[in-house]
Design brief:
Layout: H1 5-17, H2 23-30, H3 42-49, H4 54-67, H5 71-83, H6 85-97, H7 99-107, H8 120-123, H9 127-133, H10 140-159, H11 165-190, H12 192-197, E1 198-204, H13 206-209, E2 219-227, H14 233-252, E3 263-264, E4 277-278, H15 280-289, H16 293-299, E5 303-307, H17 309-323, H18 332-345, H19 363-377, H20 389-398, H21 404-428, H22 439-448, H23 455-478, H24 482-488, H25 498-508, H26 513-524, H27 529-546, H28 551-565, H29 569-577, H30 581-589, H31 594-601, H32 622-635, H33 639-666, H34 677-708, E6 714-720, H35 722-725, E7 735-743, H36 749-768, E8 778-779, E9 792-794, H37 795-804, H38 808-813, E10 818-822, H39 824-838, H40 846-862, H41 881-895, H42 907-916, H43 922-946, H44 957-966, H45 974-997
Parallel strand pairs: 2-3, 2-4, 7-8, 7-9
Antiparallel strand pairs: 1-2, 1-5, 6-7, 6-10
């Protein structure tokens, strides 16, 4: 039947207004014969519009009417829908939320009757009611039909908000319990002889055990078996295994009615490799001797659900005491944290942002945090021993283990995320924890949660809000840094009295306990919230400071930072709540002068030490640094302001790099020190070099912008030399560079030269102006003619000079040349110009080799500082940086033309290439690499400890001890450190003399 155009337009509009997305198709369904009696009923449209997906609900209703076996049955359904609002809301609510249950109703059109009853006892059925609903099943197919009939009633109460998400999860767990019992009954009936031989108990774990199951979730179980009286144990266990396997198949296998859910027994002892069924004694022996920490965590939710009830209760009674002893195991907290991190790391990258369960800010974060706190504090507080997450969270708040506000936020977020998960799974009855990316799915999901105004945007906003809250609170609770640290303190030390502080300071080796106590009193005295938090933090911080060579300096620096930031709300909150921030800060503040000095100039950089969104301690890529600096330059009013901003970024990033280096060298209680010392050297070298390049790029842009606008009259490029070009800068290194320019078309050469010279002079001036930020010294002494030559040359001038006048040392220096800033094309052409010089096609002739050797010998005799111990000089001494680098560079000059791997500005990759090319043995290469890494680490350590560059070990005992601590030598082992350095350098010198001064 087709309506008149005006009528159709009116219906079409009404359908749109009621939330239909395909009003044309829905209008045709409404005009169909199945809905003739309801066509003019205004209540129907209102009821459809109240569902999650009105189009889906209408289609499901039409299909259900079509499936009725006769007109009488169809009339009965229609009359009930018209007359009974509870049935109408339930039925249409389910049809609009679940295509899978609509399919079930279309296959079993009489099952809608399960939604008619609306009595108090029907509102909250338990295991007994569900067992009654499953009583008549005879096989896997009828089990599935009856299961979905029961599921219909749960889903109806859920989508109509008759029950909340926690009650829904509990009912789903009760239905699962009844289903497992029905499946076990069928298995026993199918094999009565096996049933007679054994006692079998089914123990639920995970969400089923915790009474918080999803619509579609693995049901985690373990099986306990015992021999029946008079039966042989081996035969009984084999019989029990057959029964358990059959029970699992009855639930898990796919039939014409689909499947129910997988029954997963992989949490049993030994996992998939262990027997499916064990005796109680075997379970107990395993957990007492072999179980890992996570296995006790899994047992927290264990409860008997099917089979022999006495055996199930005996299992729980025997194993539950072990659960509450788990927190006493070594590395318990670290093991639990590590397992959570492993779960996140294993999520496919493409799914991380859509993972509702396992991703950061997901359901698992709440569950892990709650379980950790339960296991730690449940040892002595039995009120915390609930297997249900929300009940346990409520108990933790009531006991004061979690702040009430935090608990309320977690409860709200967890309920919202679980509701999302339920509605996502309910649609197709598929096991998934991914938020859909299809807009129609998101719209239905949002509407199902009551978000009717712009449901997609509202859903996304609410989801992100709750996930963000979970992530923040999860890290606050789960990674709370003081959790196990406080547990390690002696009784009475969790709060600080003055006398206890003085005694502890002496015991910890503070050189000036009186001064340290004054700092502590200043930090912890008073009744302010700040003082209260400090009193909680200080006992642990004192231990971390004492693990350094200079705990007094660490405490003094902590006071300075706290004085500067104490009134900033986030500072103490960061240290108290944000993972490793407190320990990282303690390491950084007590490791030497450089990092604290950088921090004191801008204390807010302490935020980098946390684990959150501040970027952490990972050095930022050069492109990101350059982008930030160039953006700051664009916002600046003049060049001086722009360069000041660039230097501010440089200071912050130097602090980030220094902190990462220190934390990696010292290690933390949760993360051991970096075993690969070369990785730390490479980290610092790359980070500082990238930062220097980005700073020069920003400074160049600032100077050009102020003097010439967008375009300089000449193309201009900066070439990194020495350690800068080799990506090996240290904290105190100058930036060795060459400046090259090329006049633009039509520009007078003299004008171009004046402009280029002015740029160089202004850049160097602005980068060295005294300020709170460390200066960047730009050194151009490696240019043609050295200090006597012009600071900047044209590309053609470089070409002419190198063609006619270049000396061996200049070709040698060019091995490290790399374009770092400015015009990329000009930089590329400069590199093309010098490649034949530094990688000579015919290698080096003997005169050139002799000249290089002569220069090296002269440098050793003339440049070593007077009074320095050559054997401990990291740069110029025997086996130091110079020895290794000149050896590698001689190999490059002689062989790079035919060995492409040698064409690199970096020492360690060049050494690796020489070894791979057979130019040096693996043993000799390892010796040189070890010496180079150690010497570089010594120079970095001296700068970190003393705050100024140096190539030799300090003579002040405390500074020497700090260098030793950085290099991995404990207190009292400074002598061992010096001996190790001498041995390493001596071996490297021996290799160098053979390769550099020896024969071909």
């Amino acid at each position: 039947m087709t309506s008149a155009p005006g009528r159709r337009s009116s219906t079409f509009t009404r359908l749109l207004r009621h939330g239909f997305t395909d009003p044309s198709a829905s209008e045709r369904l409404l005009d169909g014969p199945e809905l003739t009696p309801l066509r003019d009923d205004p209540v129907l449209l209102d009821a459809l519009g109240a569902t999650a997906d009105p189009d889906l609900a209408l289609l499901g209703l039409v299909r259900l009417l079509e499936a009725q076996p006769d007109p009488t049955a169809r009339r009965e359904l229609l009359d009930t829908v018209i007359a009974a609002k509870p049935l109408r809301d339930r039925l249409l609510g389910v049809l609009g939320a679940s295509a899978a249950l609509a399919d079930h109703l279309a296959r079993h059109p009489g099952d809608w009757q399960a939604l008619v009853t609306y009595e108090p006892r029907d509102l909250h059925p338990g295991v007994e009611e569900f067992e009654s609903g499953l009583a008549g099943v005879t096989d896997a197919v009828t089990l599935r039909v009856a299961y979905r009939r029961c599921l219909l009633s749960i889903a109806a109460r859920d989508v109509c908000d008759t029950i909340d998400v926690a009650e829904t999860a509990a009912e789903l767990a009760d239905l699962a319990t009844a289903t497992l019992r029905a499946a076990l009954r069928l298995a026993r009936e199918a094999a009565p002889e096996d049933a007679a031989l054994c006692r079998l108990a089914v123990i639920a774990l995970g969400k089923c055990g915790g009474h918080e199951l999803n619509y579609v979730s693995d049901v985690d179980v373990v099986f306990v078996g015992e021999a029946a009286e008079g039966a042989d144990e081996d035969k009984a266990l084999r019989a029990a295994t057959r029964l358990a396997s059959h029970m699992m198949r009855l639930c898990s296998e796919t039939t014409v009615e689909g499947t129910i859910w997988p029954v997963d027994a992989n949490l049993r002892p030994e996992g998939r490799n262990g027997p499916l069924v064990r005796t109680l004694a075997s379970h107990l022996a395993y957990y007492q001797r072999w179980a890992k920490t996570w296995e006790f965590q899994a047992l927290l939710k264990a409860r008997p659900v099917a089979g022999d009830a006495d055996l199930g209760e005996a299992y729980v009674a025997a194993l539950h005491p072990l659960v509450w002893q788990a927190a006493e195991r070594d590395n318990f907290v670290a093991d639990v944290q590590k397992m959570r991190r492993r779960v996140v790391e294993n999520i496919p990258v493409a799914e991380v942002d859509r993972q509702l369960k396992l991703g950061p800010g997901g359901l698992r974060d709440v569950e892990f945090a709650v379980q950790l706190l339960q296991l730690v504090h449940g040892r002595t507080d039995a009120s915390l021993r609930s297997g249900t997450t929300l009940d346990a969270l409520k108990a933790l708040a009531a006991g004061g283990y979690v702040g009430r506000t935090d608990a309320a936020r977690l409860d709200e977020a967890y309920r919202f995320l679980r509701s999302m998960e339920h509605r996502i799974q309910l649609h197709r009855l598929r096991r998934t924890h991914l938020v859909p990316d299809d807009e129609s799915d998101l719209r239905r999901l949002g509407r199902s949660l009551g978000l009717r105004t712009d449901p997609v945007a509202s859903l996304t906003r609410e989801w992100k809000r709750h996930a963000s809250a979970v992530r923040r609170l999860h890290e606050k609770l789960f990674y709370r840094p003081l959790l196990d640290a406080v547990a390690q303190l002696a009784p009475g030390e969790a709060r600080l009295s003055a006398e206890a502080a003085r005694e502890r300071l002496v015991a910890l080796g503070y050189a000036d306990p009186a001064a340290a106590l004054r700092h502590l009193e200043a930090l912890a005295s008073g009744v302010t919230r700040k003082a209260a938090i400090q009193r909680t933090l200080l006992p642990v911080l004192l231990g971390w400071f004492a693990d350094s060579a200079d705990p007094d300096a660490g405490l003094l620096n902590f006071r300075k930072v706290s004085d500067a930031l104490g009134k900033t709300p986030w500072y103490l909150r960061l240290l108290r709540d944000e993972g490793a921030a407190a320990e990282n800060l303690a390491r950084v503040l007590s490791a030497g002068r450089l990092a604290p000095d950088l921090l004191m100039r801008a204390p807010e950089a302490v935020a980098l030490l946390g684990d959150g969104d501040g970027g952490g301690l990972r050095p930022r890529p050069r492109a990101h640094l350059e982008q930030e600096i160039l953006a700051a330059v664009r916002r600046a009013d003049n060049a001086a302001q722009g360069v000041t901003a660039a230097r501010g970024v440089r200071r912050r990033e130097l602090f980030r790099t220094a902190a990462a280096d220190i934390v990696g060298s010292y290690g933390t209680e949760s993360q051991p020190a970096e075993a690969d010392q070369g990785a730390l050297v490479d980290l610092v070298g790359a980070a500082v070099s990238d930062l220097t390049a980005a700073t020069l790029a920003g400074t160049l842009r600032a100077v050009v912008r102020e003097g010439w606008g967008d375009d300089l009259p000449t193309r201009f490029a900066i070439i990194g030399m020495g350690r800068f070009g080799g990506h090996e800068l240290g904290y105190g290194s100058d930036a060795d560079v060459l400046f090259v320019h090329e006049p633009r078309e039509g520009v007078d050469e003299h004008e171009a030269a004046r402009a280029a010279a002015k740029v160089v002079a202004e850049m160097r001036r602005l980068l060295q102006i005294p300020s709170s930020d460390p200066p960047l010294l730009v050194d151009a002494d490696l240019r043609p003619e050295g200090r006597n030559g012009p600071l900047v040359r044209t590309l053609s001038s470089y070409e002419a000079y190198y063609r006619r006048w270049s000396l061996v040392w200049e070709r040698h220096a060019l091995l490290r040349a790399e374009h770092v800033a400015g015009d990329e094309d000009l930089g590329r052409r400069f590199i093309e110009l010098i490649d034949p010089l530094r990688y000579p096609p015919a290698g080096l002739d003997e005169d050139a080799v002799r000249e290089i050797r002569r220069l090296k010998a002269r440098m050793e005799s003339e440049r070593l500082p007077r009074g320095a111990d050559p054997k401990l000089h990291a740069k110029l001494g025997p086996g130091g940086l110079s020895d290794v680098e000149w050896t590698v560079q001689l190999l490059q000059l002689r062989h790079a033309a035919r060995e492409p791997g040698l064409r690199t500005t970096r020492t360690r990759p060049a050494l690796t290439a020489a070894r791979e090319a057979g130019l040096i043995s693996a043993e000799d290469a390892a010796t040189l690499d070890e010496a180079w890494v150690l010497a570089t680490r010594v120079r970095n350590a001296v700068m970190l400890v003393r705050g100024r560059a140096g190539d030799t070990f300090p003579t002040v005992p405390r500074e020497l001890a700090a260098v030793g601590r950085y290099l991995g030598h404990g207190p009292g082992h400074a002598g061992d450190m010096l001996d190790e350095y001498r041995r390493t350098a001596r071996r490297a010198r021996s290799v160098m003399e053979e390769l550099f001064y020896g024969g071909d």
